[in-house]
Design brief:
This protein is mostly helical. The chain is built from 13 helices and four strands. The chain has a two-stranded parallel ribbon. It has a two-stranded antiparallel sheet with strand order 2-3. Helix 7 packs antiparallel against helix 8 and helix 8 packs antiparallel against helix 10. The termini are far apart. The relative contact order is 0.16.
């Protein structure tokens, strides 16, 4: 990941000559769209479910909530893409794992209270998904670097992938096994940008269809495909931004801001809900 010196703020985010986005732009879009998503799921959906509203207000808030949830779907693929970058270019992968683990632990209580109204051991926050994905691709790289025949490398990779998927299912992390599959796809096609921005996203969408059936939201059929598309069509924007990413990083400071943003913003959203949305 190339780290470049001082430029204008716009130049740090969007290269007007090549018409490409920097990694910094992807980070900012990811945290902003995640904030909108969590404001909708953590506050607006609570309002819609528990606060008495007249029909017109309920309908308006429902449409706003639906739109914000769609916008929020942009964030996760960008975080997965940036995770791959971090893995490939970090000076210490062990420290990278430690940071993800630390913030996964710090985020769990705010995550539980905002989305499940109390301590909940049945669901884990998205840092756990990213951590499992990181450990999986690290293990896959280790397998690939062994001095064995290619067919044996493929055979050895399957248990690694299965372990990553199984762990996300057991912990029931945010995005669960569908998120781990997306990380895997972005990693496997990291050297072929066109394929990286198509195949992993198609697989991810199909996986979300099956995940919605698995969770009992819909039975398998045209309805689950339609409803999944209504919520996840915006990942096309994520794919486009990844395609047009120049993989340059200009902002050298504030690395931990992007780690801390997750537990801090969901804590603030929960506080807002407690102060203004409950009687």
């Amino acid at each position: 990941m190339e780290c470049v010196g001082n430029q204008s703020v716009i130049g740090n985010l969007w290269d007007q000559k090549t018409h490409t986005f920097s990694d910094d732009m992807l980070k900012l879009v990811a945290v902003f769209t995640m904030l909108l998503d969590h404001a909708a799921s953590g506050i607006l959906e609570y309002y819609l479910q528990y606060v008495p509203l007249n029909d017109d207000v309920w309908e308006l808030l429902y449409r706003i909530n639906s739109d914000l949830r769609v916008i929020g779907r942009i964030a996760f693929p960008l975080f997965c893409f940036l995770l791959i970058h971090g893995f490939m270019h970090t000076h210490s992968r062990l420290k990278y794992v430690g940071n993800l683990l630390l913030f996964a632990l710090q985020s769990e209580l705010p995550f539980d209270f905002l989305f499940y109204d109390g301590i909940d051991f049945a669901h884990q926050n998205v840092f756990w998904t990213l951590l499992i994905g990181l450990l999986m691709i690290w293990a896959l790289e280790a397998v690939n670097q062994t001095n064995i025949k290619m067919i044996l490398k493929y055979a050895a990779s399957l248990p690694v992938i299965a372990a990553g998927i199984k762990m996300s299912m057991v912990l029931n992390t945010d995005y669960a096994w569908t998120g781990v599959l997306l990380i895997l796809g972005l990693y496997l096609f990291r050297k072929k940008k066109g394929l990286q921005c198509t195949i992993p996203f198609v697989v991810f969408f199909i996986a979300r269809v099956f995940r919605n059936v698995e969770l009992g939201y819909y039975s398998f059929g045209i309805q689950v495909i339609r409803e999944t598309f209504k919520l996840y069509w915006s990942i096309v924007i994520s794919a486009f931004m990844i395609l047009r990413c120049n993989e340059k990083r200009y902002i050298r400071k504030g690395k931990y801001f992007f780690y801390a943003f997750y537990p801090v913003h969901i804590s603030i959203l929960y506080l807002i809900r407690v102060l203004f949305c409950t009687g």
